[in-house]
Amino acid sequence: MIPFFPPDLFAEDRDALLEAVHTVGTDPDQRFILGRRTAAFEDALRERLGAADVVACSSGTSALTLVLTAMGIGPGDEVVVPAFGCAPLAATVAVLGAVPVFADVDPWTLVADPAAVEAAVTDRTAALMPAHMFSVMADMPRIADTARRHGLRLVEDSAVAQGGVLAGRPAGLWGEAGVFSFVQVKTFGTAGEGGAVVTRDPDLGQAVRMLRNHGQDGKQRFVHHRVGYNSRFDELLAAFQLHRLPGLDARLRRRAEIADYYTQRFAPLRERGILAPPPGREGRCFYVYTLLAERRDDLKRHLERRGVGAHVYYPAPLPLQPAFARYAPPGRRWPNAESAARRNVSIPVYPNLTDTQVEQVADAVCAFADPRREPQW
Known about the structure:
This protein is 36% helix and 13% strand. It has twelve helices and twelve strands. α6 links the parallel β4 and β5. The chain is globular, with a radius of gyration of 21 Å. The two termini are 18 Å apart.
């Protein structure tokens, strides 16, 4: 069986992880959160990205909350978000008392459609919050232009897109702030949970830094300058991520190579009801590789019979989820998001797949599209 996510993601890093546990746990400083390792990790990411600030925090979801709070988003505000994606896109807006306004997505790339984003802007819109999805970055140049023309804040949900680059600019730095997620299966995942806010605005970075630690400024304990959160980063994970950072580019290249092979193999399947993501590497991130299939459930069962793990993300658009129904105008439809929810299925694309396994995955998809290629057992 080729699992969708591998159980041995960190097998090669076992010794380093155990050493980090021992070193951090026995450090005379006994500083287990927001210590010198976290600061070094933030510095390393800031230098890599060319950002003004990087603020490590407890998760990608928390990172979104910190950014929106730092921007003053709250009751009376609207934030335009994609209709297809993970729950935090809407939940982080709603928990602050603001209203998520859902924009439909592009039918092929599955990211927010810039025209739909602009059409969703009203006189109550305070921010736009597009998200990169699966393998494709959102059309940030057009969305950034919309934000500029309407005088709106721009938050980039780049949780799955670390390593992606569009028009020479890294994912996370198109808006006023972006976020990353380090949950284990992401492109820069760790052995646990974590996230980061990245920004070109040092003042915004400082506000986020204060909010993540109960409103303290990091200089004097127990002086709380504003109401904040507990969204602090773990020293153990900081040490582990610093260990893994030098190998990130190689892992990203391997993901891209696998995706290139899949896309070439699957290009002829479009007429057979299976659509691969757009080709190329510009504005790509290859967190997961997602197909759109007319007979999605049949394809998923077929792959599992052939020993290939597959996964369906987001089987309902956000405005059709019970939690967010109150924000869905009666009679409103999001046809592309609904189609994506009905048709998407993702296949393995992680860097420690062997070439033989990659071929096995591709062969299984192609055999479904052309039953004549199915081996006779």
